[in-house]
Fold this sequence. Notes:
- Helices cover 65% and strands 12% of the residues.
- The longest helix is centred in the middle third of the chain and has 69 residues.
Amino acid sequence: IPSGFELQLYMISKPSPDSEYSGNLLISSFAKDTEVKQAQLGSERSGFFPEVSAGYFYQDIGAYKGLDGWKIELAFPLWFPPANSRIKKAKAEYDAALNTLEHQKFIIDKEIENLLFDLNKYFKQIEFFKNHALVQADALIRTAVIQFDKEEIDYFEYIQGISTGLNLKIDYLETINHYNQTAIQLEIYAN
């Protein structure tokens, strides 16, 4: 073990103590898609409205030079079934995008809930290791060494005592690793 080496828990950084994990960064692409579909629906609906256009023209025709004027056009849709079908298609696409957005929000909320539960579980396990299991592991190793030196136990019992103590320490390190991995995954959902 390198000198001065101590495992540390990953520090979770939140923008503020009151903020929660929401995954807005991951949801934003679905929200943008929904906005695009809504704009397409509005564009298709605008086909029912009359089109108004105005313009200015200048032209030369033969001997007549400098003819200019204004032009105003008003167009009304006369045949509605194609526009209706495009609107229905755009509405279905918008509804599908909205459902996808809501579904992704639900999935991300559940993922955050599970990660927070796991993080809390690993934190409690680490506290147990620090307060009880690591003390017992050191005591097991120390006792096994003392008893073996005094020849009170045989080699098999000595190895078994050392192995049990080291296994407790390995479990502690694995728990810290799980905690850190969970905390890093949770950081994805921070805003």
